[in-house]
Amino acid sequence: MTRSQTAILAAFLAGSLLLGGCATVTTNTSHTFQTVVVDAGHGGKDSGAYRRNAPPEKVVALDVALRVNRKLQESQLHTVLTRSNDTFIPLDSRVALGNQQKNSIFVSIHFNDSRRGAVQGVETYYYSPHAFDLASKIERNLATLPGTANRGVHTARFRVLRNAQYPSVLVECGYLSNRSSARAAADAGYREQLADKIAEAIVDYRYGDGVYRRTPAVLARAGSGGASFLPSFR
Length: 234
Ligand code: ZN
Description:
The protein is α/β, with parallel strands linked by helices. It has a single domain (about 25-220), classed as 3-Layer(aba) Sandwich (Aminopeptidase). About 40% of the residues lie in helices and about 15% in strands. The protein contains 8 helices and 6 strands, in the order H-E-H-E-H-E-E-H-E-H-E-H-H-H. It has helices spanning about 5-20, 55-75, 90-100, 130-140, 160, 180-185, 190-205, 215-225; strands at about 35-40, 80, 105-110, 120-125, 150-155, 170-175. Helix 2 (about 55-75) crosses helix 7 (about 190-205) and helix 4 runs antiparallel to helix 7. The protein is globular, with a radius of gyration of 19 Å. The termini are far apart. The relative contact order is 0.17. The chain binds zinc ion. Zinc ion binds near residues 42, 48 and 110.
């Protein structure tokens, strides 16, 4: 390698290090997006939150993500899943896949864990200011589920948020460390409702309030009281 080549390499490495240390500047696609990258947290060797009496986070996160994915497709949005089965996908690969999708947003689905068993409720995270409104809408929508505490919208430097080129939101759908919330998460009907709230927030945010149409299955459940599968959170 010549001296000038070494200089170029050194400059390139310095630039990469700098970029690696800084958050990516996002393109604001929050009002134009046609594609939603749906990211099911964890997978494979990474179980995420894992409590004895609850399904592992990777399982329930995937289930909710697949439901969100289907609902968005039914609403004519293009979707990309970062995983559709129980595989380990590194965080950087998830981000890279998201960044490859032009005019997209990124939505990551997780469940939470706390050492304090009484803690329950939903939280939504963002990093780019362009993702704040969508994060708020998802949070508000999820908090309308009976007995679900609204634990707010927060900024976080999670990799899937910080390195995303497009608006990116991470949703914590509930605490698996809370007995009632874990029981709820284990219930397919409840996961369908979680997915419905997330999909509704995304579709209405993009196309206007009231645009989202619930599938007949969800409507039927809501009409028949729905409480049969909703645990008491008291
Ligand atoms: Zn997680």
